[in-house]
Amino acid sequence: MKSIENEGRRAFMGGVAMAALLLGNRSLWAKAPGGRWPKVAPPQSPRISDVIEQLGRTRDDAYSWMKFIPESGERNRTNLPPAVAKMLADENAYADALLQPTEATQAELVRAMLARGSDAAAAPALEKDGWIYSSAIPPGATHARYSRQRGGGEAELLVDEGLRAKDQPYFRSTGHQPSPDHRWFAWAEDVIGNDRHRICIRDNRTGEIRTIVDKDAYGYGGLVFSPSSRWLFWIWRDARNRPTRLYRTSVDGKVTDLVYEEKDPAIFMSVKRTAADGFVALTLAGPETAEVRLVPARDETAAPIAVWPRKTGVRYEIDEWDGSLVALTDLDDAFDMQLLRLDPRDFRTLATLVPHRAGTPILSILPFKRALIRLERADGLHRLVILRPDGSEQVIAFDDPAYAIELPLEQSYDAASVMIAHQSPKSPRRWIRVDLASGKQTVVGRQRIENFDPHDYQVERLFAPAPDGEMVPITLLSRRGAPKDGKAPLLQYGYGSYGVPSDPEFSIPALALVDRGWRYAIAHVRGGSEKGRRWFLGGRKFTKRNSFTDFIACAEYLADEGYTAKGKIVAYGLSAGGLLVGASMNIAPTLWGGVIAKVPFVDMLNTMSDAAHPLVPLFRPDWGDPLADPRAYDYIASISPYENVRATPYPPLLCTAGLKDDRVAYWEPAKLVAEVRRKSTSGNPAMLMTDMDSGHQGSADLASEYKEKALFWAFAMRCVA
């Protein structure tokens, strides 16, 4: 559910004329067999042969004409080829027409979500050097306001994102942070929808806000103030949207210098300050390698120096604690990570702080002067460990069947306690201060949820047997006392790629669905990291099929145990989770009552054969290289959802896309929908909805998020009505 919390949003654009025609002709609303869907003729995309020869293999991609990459600039409404523009408009109009009978249900769901409250982003303030920084979504608003105050004085507004988002078709921000001297406040914002940010800086003395980088910045872990507060280090994206350069810009915006340029397209970049402000750390990482380069605080204009040169098979991150550097690394086959103490001058290993423990992966660390905090998993569940300079440790864990712990960033290195956030599918966020000396926990804030009693819900942690004997974890949310009689419909979410876990977080949209008699399941399939690095490797590259069979095994187990029934399960996945649900749909089409695929990665073979794609070089270790490796070609061809559509009774399918998305472009779901529509024997609809203003993520506001979830849930309800 981590990937669910702030996903892309839906905007019904395009095809207005056709939609008006359909809506105006009531005779077209005669019900299809079963009474679920209006009888509307779907668009028919032409098939134009495009024979591709590759590694001695031949395929015909008859929908390749749908792909459009402009020679310069971004895709938008005005530069689309006429055939593509018509296809997207027709698809949007068709989806709107089919889903028109669900509009009342959608509205009810949105009201139910909004009635629970809108302060999901509110959190207790964090104190740094006497300043208290906080953010919250005001009542009735959908965007956050960032503020600070000192010594009990009047709050000072830093950023009102509602004002900055006003009249923008798209708005998403990230990276909010004060400078170490508190003179400045910076953040990155995307007002286009293509993940290319501008960076803004506020002078806290005058209140003036300036755009210090006007375009092409990378906002996600891509900006940080220098320890002196005189410079802002930031990452630039090239024409293919790859983060490739680190720049240093003076806070007055007058001087910008290139610090480092990465030539390897398979390397990703992020930048941060180390915990005690001793260094600026540039991390260069791929799926199987890493290199950290440090700029010391004593010489902020120096060239960054590598701690360890990159080496295939060795991943590491660097921070500082207790007068030394700390490396979180898998060196020497520590696949679930270990912690090493390094000399800050010559980077040699001084000691092992935490040894490798197979099956207990270390996820992240947060150093404080008084203790080193690490977040890890034990038996698949989060726990916090306090490591003190004297070597003593204290474990902080919780009794919930399934839960998630978060470590908010920007905590003061000098703090005597660490702030954590705890949540579960039936427990809203609680912010807890944990004393670093004693481990004492103090709840300092709670997410306020109206019209909600956690005792009305039940969370279970279940395990489904996979075909090869592995036990796949499931997090299940139900109304308390719901019978196990096989009658309840169920929505099953999964992701299972890149080692990204699907943590059991609190979700107002999930509650809204469960309140209507549904169950909500998260399938923690292989390819994620819920059970450590080996769980990830067991669903990666040539073992990727395990992710799909795990997902199917979870659904079958839930049906066999009476939590639901086959045919009443709606599969839901996004991005690489779209690959999961698309492949599972091909393998077991009659198991699912419906399938929701949000910006889905479903055209694997063609995308991984595109060396110009911004992410292909980076993720070849995860998927294989069908341009150079015949085995990889054949394996990808055997699992790619688009390549494996067949004549079979498919369930209803709803796919979404963002026109400006360069991670998973609109033509991937467009091809899948066209092929399912052509071959399905069931008569069930296959729909594509494209947001013409967004990219891989939608505009970040609660109203948009709730509208999208209401659309998905209403579609799911229609599927099993």
Characterise the protein shown here.
With 721 residues, the protein is α+β, with helices and mostly antiparallel strands. The protein is 19% helix and 33% strand. The protein has 13 helices and 37 strands. The strands form 8 sheets. Strands 30-31-33-32-34-35-36-37 form an 8-stranded mixed sheet, with helices on both faces. Strands 7-8-9-10-11-12-13 form a 7-stranded antiparallel sheet, with no helix packed on it. A 4-stranded antiparallel sheet has the order 3-4-5-6. Strand 24 and strand 25 form a beta hairpin. Helix 3 crosses helix 13 (702-719). Residues 1-34 have low confidence and may be disordered.
Largest sheet: 8 strands, mixed
User: What class do helices, strands and sheet pairing give?
Assistant: alpha+beta
> What is the topology, as strand order, of the major beta sheet?
30-31-33-32-34-35-36-37
Report strand %. Answer: 25-35%
Quaternary status: single chain
Ends: how far apart? 25 Å
**Share of helical residues:** 10-25%
**Principal-axis shape:** globular
Count the E strands.
37
By DSSP (H or I, 4+ residues per run), the number of helices equals 13
Q: What integer value in Å does the Rg equal?
A: 25 Å
- The stretches of 5 or more residues where confidence is low (pLDDT under 50) are 1-34
Mean pLDDT: 92
Describe this protein with a few key phrases.
721 residues, alpha+beta, 19% helix, disordered N terminus, 13 helices, single chain
Per-chain topology:
Layout: H1 16-24, E1 51-54, E2 57-60, H2 82-99, H3 103-115, E3 126-128, E4 131-136, E5 145-150, E6 156-160, H4 161-165, E7 172-178, E8 184-190, E9 197-203, E10 209-225, E11 231-237, E12 243-250, E13 256-261, E14 268-273, E15 279-286, E16 289-296, E17 305-306, E18 316-321, E19 324-329, E20 338-342, E21 349-354, E22 362-367, E23 372-378, E24 381-387, E25 393-396, E26 404-406, E27 417-424, E28 427-435, E29 441-446, E30 457-465, E31 471-479, E32 490-493, H5 508-514, E33 519-523, H6 533-537, H7 545-560, E34 569-574, H8 576-587, E35 592-598, H9 604-608, H10 616-623, H11 630-639, E36 653-658, H12 667-679, E37 686-691, H13 702-719
Helix pairs in contact: 1-2, 3-13, 7-8
